[in-house]
Amino acid sequence: MYPPIDTAAVERAARILSEGGPVAIPTETVYGLAADADNRDAVLKTFAVKGRPTNHPLIVHIAGPEALSAWACVVPEEARLLAKAFWPGPLTMVLPKSERCGGFVTGGQASVALRCPSHPWIQALLKRFAGSTFKGLTAPSANTFGKISPTCAAHVAEDLGVKPEGSLDMILDGGRCEVGVESTIINLSGERPEILRHGAVTRAMLEAVLGRPVPDAGSDAPRASGRLKSHYAPGTPVTLFSAKDIAALAAGNDKVAVMATADVLDACKKAFGNRIVLELVMSREEADWQHSLYENLHRLDKSGAARLLIEQPPQTPEWAAVNDRLGRAAAAKDA
Length: 335
Ligand code: TXA
Ligand code: MG
Known about the structure:
Layout lengths: L6 H12 L4 E3 L6 E5 L3 H11 L8 E3 L6 H4 L5 H10 L4 E6 L6 H4 L4 E5 L4 H11 L6 E2 L14 H7 L24 E4 L6 E4 L5 H8 L27 E4 L4 H4 L6 E5 L1 H11 L3 E6 L4 H16 L5 E5 L8 H11 L5
Parallel strand pairs: 3-5, 4-7, 9-12, 10-11, 10-12
Antiparallel strand pairs: 1-2, 2-6, 3-6, 4-5, 7-8
Helix pairs in contact: 1-6
The structure holds threonylcarbamoyladenylate and magnesium ion (MG).
């Protein structure tokens, strides 16, 4: 449940955005760093705040499907079907961009990523901000490039911070994000639909609406920072493990932090003893994992452990989004 909408705070956020300032905003997936998508300087400021390369394209957040044709020059029937099924919600669609959409938004690409988020606070903000000209908000996740994405206002405050110490004019605090991992991205700008990033809208859900296969994008896919091998990463090294690995992992005498299901955690306690500085019990439910994944990564990373040990969830289709983010968190930084 989200807190009731603070209308005064939403008004203030809309005003700062209209004046060209970046504002951290809540969405149902993760917190975003919003800017007026028509304002080049405002958008470029968000790249600077994140330390993100400017050739990485951003998602434009819109109030509803009526804004699709303002930002995309072609809106195929499949985009309409998906918008009907999943908007507002955690699905982003990549379409050929319109004239209006600047290259500073798309990293110079001819396509644009569009999403209509469902969090009631950003819905209120977008309705207030969009006006009759279908204005949109660019919003990458509100974290330093490559770090763990924020799922509550405190994560944003710790990472990017508010002025004068930090770099933001405002963090709109709309509570904890319910989904917890970034939106699913589907590319509809090519010959066939393909998945660019896994999220809460699964392949099976997309295929059920489109009535045809939706494969993962190949390596020639458009640029997406979420596709970098090491991304969404804690500063502390992460190892994914299963029960059979525990004895080998316990060699040595360093401190570890462990996140695992109850039985596996018990086995770890026996093997590591008091070397475990933080233990987090994970449920076996995929939605719970997803919801608290980044929050738990933040906690593990702050625990002071030399290594983070995370039990590998089942390698089945429902777990695609979680396994994808964990794989990138565990990838060596120099990979
Ligand atoms: O859930 C989300 O999508 C969050 C919230 C704030 O809405 N936003 C988010 O933004 O994750 P960001 O910038 O961290 O990730 C957006 C992804 C990037 O991997 C980017 O490269 C990809 O979308 N993307 C954007 N435009 C694209 C395009 N035209 N073609 C292919 N990928 C694109
Ligand atoms: Mg991101």
